[in-house]
């Protein structure tokens, strides 16, 4: 994707033209109230709240956000922000962050890492990580819960507790939020204790065995202490069944958790918010299925010699005695040696449409994510011009991962191989179905101090931040299944290395590591050998981050306080180090001594990120701004590599202009933003799966991360809300994104020519629209609420090294509720029906052609050595979730 030179100027001028064109009409609108209302926050980007405040009549209510570390009116906050309110979360039946993968907020992209639900990929404005699921790796979008940054993506798909709103802050937030926010920040704000008795219970059922319930209890305050309790349970059976008896199917989850919060206000001006939460998420990955077979239309070989009728391990041209090549040297290719690919096992089907049951059963048990944490948020209004704040937090996550999403559909090697000596025997190279096992443990501590206030003509925020993290992981990647001689049957392999006996258990796999296990002991003490051999990798990393920051806004009285000039900056020092101390028991990496020493890395940087913002209030309802900001994503090391080589941070420079306007007596709202981002030292991943049966890293996913070069990202975002009558609200959001990524040489294939790199999960066009209709009925304060939303994304890339695109998508969600039926003076009931993916749209959200094309091998000088055809199978992909629907009953006491 190429962006012409001069596009930066064109984009800035175009955005200004859009805003200025609207100005004459917008200037005629009625003045708005200055105070930011605390009514429910809007459903989507700049949309209407659930119920507008009375003083605004039938108009669109104000929206309160905390993007600048203070409560401000969204329309007067000079950055691009999207907000999803509690009502919007309920209307879309959003139970976890993965439910936002349908594109409800067009600039926000949510996807799975690989196919697993246990780790999510979060992206904004084209800053989307490919693989941050590691001990020494971060994402480019920060995720915050009540102001506390989460260090790892594992556990992000846990059940959401009582969320008041979700704020999506777009563009670099490096000044106030710090590192790893080069694309933006995703901020979840929980409902705080009120000190007034309130009890809410929701229970629901749905298809695929779904059931969910949540309980929220606010207790009356006593001795200036208010307590609030939240409990959540969510369950769904697999949407794709597993043919292996006793094994878990795919797209299953069972989530449960609780949160207790306390608010203490002993004196005027002082508030202490304390909270502890615990969540357990059991889940299985989305299913990977074969979308086509041999798309290159190569000849399909046979293991039977057509001339002699003898079975063998070599491929033959069907019906002949001529051997054909799975791997062809340059000389053989020039000589015209026949090219054949391995035949597909008869049990494996080609499924361009959604599967509901697998062709082959594989061991699969749920992954288990446990997240928990404590936070203390203190605020003290020391004087009218200053408020002191402290945010102290400790959090931890543990992930026990069991991910067998592929079966034979993702095998990049011959589906089955015949043993010439004994055709009925199981051949050790006929293994398939990679079981990705991992146990990761991470804990973090953070402390932030802030001073926030205002003096005549100036608003300010200053602060200091400290963060430390320890993460460790060990992982294994056994191949769980094995074909018979002709691919008509298979067995489940033993999880114990060296044990050739087949087993029938559904959970074949083993994660073992003994601290005393190393190559020396493995050689001298065979009792440790199995533990050593089974660990693909083990690593540990520690991170320390220190920063000081500040923002100062000047609103000169001489100009009537309509001009606001903000300057800010953040100085950061980041120190990270770690070691990779197990690599598939590879003694060949050790050198002469025969002992593998741990591979270590150190990464230390010190940098300053500035921000400048000029905002102009053309009227009380029309606001313009221009912003320059930088941000960075920390460096680290890739623990899937063979040497744990360090890579440096990547950095973004961003230029943004925007306009925010209310008009038509506050019955319409239009927000527009245009931006340009230049990213330097882009972190790109180069990877391959080792499928060589004789290789010491067989079955391993080997990956190398490098700072590949510069990426260019440009875009426009438009958000429109219209409320033509008090009962009806129409909203629409659109995001248009251009990008250009560099080309680079794959460090894992020396000599190969540079290859084009791709930014994943970034559609050129994304849009969302919603209709909300609320009409009172003659049952007390009851009302009928209808919500419909539609979300579109154009096709996009899902792998950094592949030019294959996913399908375009359009997903609708809906909810119909009879809300707030008065049972008595205090109790109200709401009944509702909901549907996600209402039209049962089917599309591939993740697609790979890695197993569809020949692999070329080059010498160090760049000469083509050979071309491998044996691994050709076909494209595989993951489909979105099918239509789900259900019924819910909610009660307020």
Question: Can you walk me through this structure?
Answer:
The chain has 893 residues and is mostly beta strands. Helices cover 5% and strands 48% of the residues. It has 5 helices and 51 strands. It has a 22-stranded antiparallel barrel. A 5-stranded mixed beta sheet has the order 3-8-9-6-7. Strand 10 and strand 11 (211-218) form a beta hairpin. It is globular, with a radius of gyration of 29 Å. It starts with 6 loop residues before the first helix and ends with a strand. Residues 1-57, 423-427, 497-533 and 587-596 have low confidence and may be disordered.
Which stretches are poorly predicted, pLDDT < 50 over at least 5 residues?
1-57, 423-427, 497-533, 587-596
Largest sheet: 22 strands, antiparallel, barrel
How would you state the average pLDDT, rounded? 84
Gyration radius from CA atoms, angstroms: 29 Å
What general outline do the C-alpha atoms trace? globular
Structural class: mainly beta
DSSP E strands, number: 51
Q: Please report which band the strand proportion falls in: under 5%, 5-15%, 15-25%, 25-35%, 35-45% or over 45%.
A: over 45%
Helix content: under 10%
Number of helices: 5
In short:
This protein has 893 residues and is mainly β.
Helices, strands, pairings?
Layout (H helix, E strand, L loop, with lengths): L6 H20 L37 E2 L6 E2 L7 E5 H6 L16 E6 L2 E9 L16 E5 L2 E2 L13 E8 L13 E7 L7 E9 L4 E8 L6 E12 L16 E12 L5 E14 L4 E3 L8 E2 L1 E3 L6 E6 L10 E3 H6 L4 E2 L25 E17 L2 E18 L27 E4 L1 E20 L2 E19 L2 E5 L6 E4 L8 E2 L15 H6 L4 H6 L2 E18 L8 E21 L15 E19 L4 E12 L2 E2 L8 E2 L2 E14 L4 E13 L2 E7 L11 E7 L3 E15 L2 E13 L2 E2 L10 E2 L8 E12 L6 E11 L15 E14 L5 E9 L7 E5 L6 E4 L5 E5 L7 E4 L4 E9 L1
Parallel strand pairs: 6-9, 16-20
Antiparallel strand pairs: 1-2, 3-8, 4-5, 6-7, 8-9, 10-11, 10-51, 11-12, 12-13, 13-14, 14-21, 15-50, 17-18, 19-49, 21-22, 22-24, 23-26, 24-25, 25-29, 26-27, 27-28, 29-30, 30-31, 31-32, 32-35, 33-34, 35-36, 36-39, 37-38, 39-40, 40-43, 41-42, 43-44, 44-45, 45-46, 46-51, 47-50, 48-49
């Amino acid at each position: 994707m190429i962006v012409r030179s001069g596009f930066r100027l064109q984009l800035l001028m175009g955005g200004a033209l859009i805003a200025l064109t609207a100005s004459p009409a917008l200037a005629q609108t009625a003045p708005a109230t200055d105070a930011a209302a605390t009514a429910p926050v809007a459903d989507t980007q700049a949309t209407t709240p659930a119920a507008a405040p009375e003083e605004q009549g039938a108009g669109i209510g104000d929206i309160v956000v905390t993007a600048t570390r203070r409560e401000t009116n969204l329309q007067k906050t000079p950055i691009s922000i999207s907000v999803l309110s509690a009502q919007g979360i309920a209307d879309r039946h959003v139970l976890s962050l993965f439910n936002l993968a349908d594109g409800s907020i067009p600039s926000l992209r949510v996807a799975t890492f690989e196919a697993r639900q246990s780790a999510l990929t979060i992206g904004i404005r084209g800053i989307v990580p490919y693989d941050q699921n590691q001990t020494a790796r971060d994402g480019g979008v920060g995720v915050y819960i009540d102001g506390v940054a989460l260090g790892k993506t594992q556990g992000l798909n846990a059940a959401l507790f009582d969320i008041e709103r979700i704020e999506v802050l777009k563009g670099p937030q490096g000044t106030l939020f710090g590192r790893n926010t080069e694309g933006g920040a995703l901020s979840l704000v929980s409902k705080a204790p009120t000190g007034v008795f309130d009890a809410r219970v929701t229970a629901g059922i749905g298809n695929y065995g779904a059931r969910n319930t949540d309980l929220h209890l606010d207790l009356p305050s006593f001795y200036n202490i208010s307590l609030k309790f939240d409990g959540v349970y969510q369950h769904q059976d697999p949407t794709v069944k597993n043919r292996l008896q006793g094994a878990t199917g795919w797209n299953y989850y069972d989530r449960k958790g609780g949160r207790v919060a306390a608010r203490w206000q002993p004196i005027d001006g002082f508030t202490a918010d304390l909270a502890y939460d615990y969540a357990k998420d059991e889940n299985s990955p989305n299913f990977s299925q074969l979308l086509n077979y041999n798309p290159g239309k190569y000849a399909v070989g046979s293991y039977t010699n057509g001339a002699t009728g003898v079975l063998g391990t070599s491929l033959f041209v069907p019906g002949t005695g001529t051997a054909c090549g799975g791997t062809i040297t340059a000389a053989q290719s020039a000589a015209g040696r026949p090219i054949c690919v391995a035949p597909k096992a008869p049990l494996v089907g080609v499924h361009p449409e959604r599967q509901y049951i697998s062709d082959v059963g594989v061991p699969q048990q749920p992954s288990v994510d446990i997240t928990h944490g404590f936070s203390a948020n203190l605020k003290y209004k020391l004087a009218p011009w200053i408020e002191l704040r402290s945010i102290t937090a400790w959090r931890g996550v543990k992930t026990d991962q069991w991910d067998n999403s592929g079966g034979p559909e993702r095998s990049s090697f011959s589906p089955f191989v015949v043993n010439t000596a004994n055709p009925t025997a199981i051949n050790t190279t006929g293994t398939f179905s990679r079981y990705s096992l991992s146990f990761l443990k991470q804990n973090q501590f953070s402390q932030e101090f802030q001073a926030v206030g205002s003096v005549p003509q100036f608003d300010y925020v200053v602060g200091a931040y400290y963060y430390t993290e320890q993460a460790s992981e060990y992982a294994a990647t056994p191949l769980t299944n094995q074909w018979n001689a002709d691919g008509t049957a298979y067995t489940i392999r033993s999880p114990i290395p060296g044990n050739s006996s087949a087993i029938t258990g559904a959970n074949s796999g083993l994660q073992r590591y003994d601290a005393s296990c190393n190559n020396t002991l493995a050689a001298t003490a065979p009792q440790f050998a199995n533990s050593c051999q089974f660990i693909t990798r083990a690593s540990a990393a520690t991170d320390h981050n220190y920063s000081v920051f500040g923002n100062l806004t000047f609103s000169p009285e001489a100009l009537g306080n309509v001009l606001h000039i903000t300057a800010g900056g953040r100085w950061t020092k980041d120190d990270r180090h770690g070691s990779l101390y197990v690599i598939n028991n590879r003694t060949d990496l050790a050198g002469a001594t025969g002992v593998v020493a741990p591979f270590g890395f150190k990464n230390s940087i010190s940098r300053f990120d500035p921000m400048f913002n000029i905002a102009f209030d053309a009227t009380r309802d029309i606001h313009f701004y221009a912003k320059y900001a930088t941000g960075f994503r920390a460096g680290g090391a890739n623990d899937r590599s063979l040497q744990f080589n360090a890579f440096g941070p990547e950095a973004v420079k961003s230029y943004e202009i925007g306009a925010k306007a209310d008009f038509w007596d506050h019955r319409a709202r239009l927000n527009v933003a245009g931006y340009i981002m230049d990213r330097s030292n882009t972190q790109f991943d180069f990877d391959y799966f080792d499928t060589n049966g004789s290789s010491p890293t067989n079955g391993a996913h080997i990956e190398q991360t490098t700072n590949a070069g510069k990426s260019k990202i440009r875009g426009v975002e438009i958000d429109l809300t219209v409320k033509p009558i008090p009962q009806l609200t129409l909203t629409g959001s659109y995001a248009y994104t251009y990008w250009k990524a560099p080309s680079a040489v794959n460090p894992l294939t020396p000599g190969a020519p540079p290859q084009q790199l791709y930014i994943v999960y970034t559609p050129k066009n994304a849009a969302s629209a919603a209709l909300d209709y609320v009409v009172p009925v003659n049952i007390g304060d009851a009302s009928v609420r209808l919500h419909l939303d539609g979300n579109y994304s154009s096709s996009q890339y899902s792998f950094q090294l592949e030019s294959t695109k996913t399908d375009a998508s359009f997903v609708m969600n809906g909810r119909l509720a009879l809300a707030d039926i008065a049972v008595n003076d205090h109790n109200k009931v709401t009944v509702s029906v909901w549907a996600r993916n209402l039209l049962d749209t089917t599309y591939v959200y993740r697609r790979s052609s890695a197993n569809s094309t020949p692999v070329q091998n080059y010498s160090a000088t760049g000469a083509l050595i050979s071309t491998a055809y044996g691994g050709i199978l076909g494209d595989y992909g993951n489909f979105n979730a099918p239509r789900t629907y259900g019924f819910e009953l909610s009660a307020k006491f």
